[in-house]
Write a structure and sequence with these properties.
Blueprint (H helix, E strand, L loop, with lengths): L11 H11 L1 H12 L4 H12 L1 H4 L3 H17 L3 E7 L8 E6 L3
Antiparallel strand pairs: 1-2
Amino acid sequence: MAKGDGVGLASARYLAMRAVIGSQEGQAAILKAIADGHPPLCGVDPLLTQIIVDYAKGDDQMLMSAGSIVAEHLVARGYVKGAIRGCPTGCTAGTGSSFALPT
């Protein structure tokens, strides 16, 4: 992973990530990843990689910010954070937190 120069909360990159993750397509990809047994970040990984160069390069700050935004959306829906899991081959993020609805 590459070390980045940080991601400001008002930066165009951060706002673009929030828009992608919060979009209908992003939310559907997150839920599909959970259903498939993958960390939800892996669901939006391809979408983020297509539009954000720093994310595609594996910038640590971008990856952490994306994971935090995904977590924010899921916690708001009642999901509970679980263990860190590996992401599928080809995913820019190497690992991500798992999430599930409480039983």
